[in-house]
Design a protein that fits this description.
Blueprint (H helix, E strand, L loop, with lengths): L3 H16 L44 E12 L3 H12 L4 E4 L12 E2 L4 H5 L6 H11 L6 H24 L3 E4 L16 E5 L15 H11 L3 E3 L4 E7 L2 E9 L2 E13 L8 H7 L1 H5 L1 E4 L8 H8 L10 E9 L12 E2 L8 E3 L13 H8 L7 E5 L3 H8 L20 H13 L4 E3 L2 H8 L3 H17 L20 E13 L10 E3 L5 E7 L19 H18 L2
Helix pairs in contact: 2-6, 2-15, 4-5, 5-15, 13-14
Length: 562
């Protein structure tokens, strides 16, 4: 039975706490500088008065059509959910796994780990304290650094386990070898692992984001995991600070699931909940013009935890990549619907709408987008010339933006041929512009000709001298604009997922407002907090997914052993 008085009090406090520092207002782009055109529509985003949480649902007993008894309840069949369910079932526990959709989100590619056997075979050594301190620096200290050490100490074993499952199913896992990478201003950590899915693999028409569901979904089913699809989490059942299970909305009515050992919430964050984004992350909406978030990630798990008395992160953040094209008469931000532009995360010459450089383009993905928020129109312009393939290889980008196989044959998320074909479509559709001269390029992009020409001249001079005295970009990431035709595109960002969630301890239990763990409630994946703040450390490839699978598997094993 739910203690409704406690629920009302904690929900009100949790709502105020979760708003944290996100209650800001974005200034209209046209107010920033005269060289930016006013957008067709502007949207003032503020969290003032937003009631996105609402009251915890009350489900009458007569509407519950089924009651399930299990040891472990997993809410969500995505990356974390599949790893948690498999681990718990391997340990002999009865497992029920709820999933909102027709099939889970699957396991995302790019898994970050330290000390996997593939890394050891490649001779890659990462110092635990160095990477954990770097991750803490990225988050400005708004985190629990002990969680970083748990990831560093346990992720290699988890990735090894996944490699075994992939090989049993006939697939292969690769490590992004980076032993010969030139020194960079912003340090890259070679943590990424990516499966190489055969071209003829049958994934029933699903996107590459969810390929892993086939392997672990089948494996979990073979272990007896009871998957309940089209059955979203509605609320957690809790009383006196203890969670005993949940109520879900099944195809035939409400289902109560009693979980004797624990409930794991991992429903994927709130990237598809516009109301929550507007209230908590207006800064994120200002730098994105597209979403690639998993469908159905609407904050269900986070809300359920808050209703149960959990407390959230105070700093709101998301994973946003600078890979969206908008048209030459459009501005970046959520008022514009852009198209995928995969080359955007490469360190091309990037200018603002005044035609001026404004950042070291070799910076992490969202650093560039953050800097754009300070510029006219909050919009970036990427430019390159006809020798761009040569420079793409020279840039030696790692992680998901890379377009050339790694030195050990490890694949990339997107092959160069795919990107080139897609760029041609963007040209045909009027996103990427093509010009025979630099002045013509500036005119087609809607930026001042004289200023842009001076910027290009300076860029070419820096390239010739192999030094960037203006922003300190590495010499091997400088590229000139001399070979016509020239190309350019206005760019913005795409949202992949939210990164702020429920505060957890080192056992991954949700914490209440007094700093005590809530018995029976565990949170994983991007529903969990205490790990990121402000930005995503994308230079540790696969860090989010690696954290997700590591902690989920640790939770599943620990609960099965109870």
């Amino acid at each position: 039975m739910t203690n409704h008085n406690f629920q009302r009090t904690s929900s009100s406090m949790s709502r105020r706490a979760f708003m944290g520092l996100g209650a800001t207002t974005i200034i209209a782009a046209s107010a920033l500088a005269g060289c930016a055109p006013e957008p067709a529509s502007t949207k003032e985003l503020s969290s003032t008065g937003a009631d996105w949480l609402g009251a915890e649902p009350e489900i009458p007993e007569e509407k519950i059509v089924e009651t399930l008894e299990t040891d472990v309840l997993v809410c969500g069949a995505g990356t974390s959910g599949l790893f948690a369910a498999c681990a718990a079932a391997e340990g002999g526990a009865r497992v029920v796994c709820l999933e909102k959709g027709s099939i889970g989100g699957g396991v995302r590619d790019n898994l970050g780990a330290v000390n996997s056997r593939l890394q050891k075979e490649a001779g890659c050594q990462i110092d635990e304290n160095e990477i954990c301190n770097d991750l803490t620096r990225y988050a400005s200290g708004y985190v629990n650094p002990r969680l970083y050490h748990l990831w560093a100490q346990n992720s290699g074993e988890v990735v090894d386990w996944y490699q075994d499952r992939l090989e049993e199913a006939g697939f292969q896992l690769f490590f992004e070898a980076a032993n010969n990478t030139p020194e960079t201003t912003y340090r890259h950590w070679a943590t990424g692992h990516i499966p190489s899915w055969p071209a003829d693999a049958d994934f029933s028409g699903e996107s590459d984001v969810v390929n892993g569901k086939i392997v672990l979904g089948d494996y979990a089913s073979s272990l007896g995991v009871d998957f309940r699809f089209h059955t979203p989490l509605v609320k957690l059942e809790h009383e006196d600070g203890k969670v005993t299970g949940a109520i879900a909305d099944g195809p035939d009515g409400y289902i109560r699931i009693n979980a004797a050992k624990g409930t794991i919430v991992c429903t994927g964050g709130y990237a598809r909940n516009e109301e929550m984004l507007e209230a908590l992350q207006p800064h994120t909406l200002a730098k994105m013009s597209s979403s690639r978030a998993v469908d159905g990630t609407t904050g269900d798990g986070i809300k359920a935890c808050l209703w149960a008395g959990a407390v959230p992160d105070k700093i709101h953040s998301a994973m946003v990549f600078d890979r969206v094209a908008v048209k030459p008469d459009e501005l970046g931000g959520s008022q514009t619907q852009g198209r995928l532009f995969w080359m955007g995360s490469n360190p091309w010459l990037k200018v603002n709408l005044c035609g001026e450089r404004f950042i070291n383009e070799s910076a992490p993905y969202d650093y560039v987008l953050n800097a754009a928020l300070t510029q006219p129109g909050q919009t970036i312009v990427d430019v390159w010339d006809s020798d761009f393939v040569t420079y793409l290889e020279q840039f030696d980008i790692h992680g998901c933006a890379r377009l050339f196989p790694f030195e050990n044959g490890a694949p990339t998320n997107r092959e160069l041929s795919w990107v080139l074909d897609f760029n041609e479509k963007l040209i045909d559709e009027g996103y990427i512009v093509k010009a025979d001269t630099i002045p013509e390029l500036a005119e087609k992009l809607g930026i001042p000709v004289d200023t842009f020409a001076s910027t290009v001249e300076r860029q070419n001079e820096n390239y010739d001298n192999q030094v960037d005295p203006d922003f300190g970009k590495e010499a091997f990431r400088l590229s000139p604009l001399r070979t016509a035709p020239f190309y350019g595109v206005r760019t913005s960002g795409y949202l992949l997922c939210t990164l702020d969630g429920i505060t957890i301890n080192e056992q991954f239990q949700a914490m209440d407002e007094n700093g005590a763990p809530i018995e029976g409630l565990y949170v994983a994946g991007v529903d969990s907090g205490s790990y990121y703040a402000g930005t995503y450390p994308n230079l540790s490839t696969g860090n989010c997914c690696g954290r997700s699978i590591t902690f989920a598997r640790m939770i599943g094993k620990a609960l099965a052993a109870q």
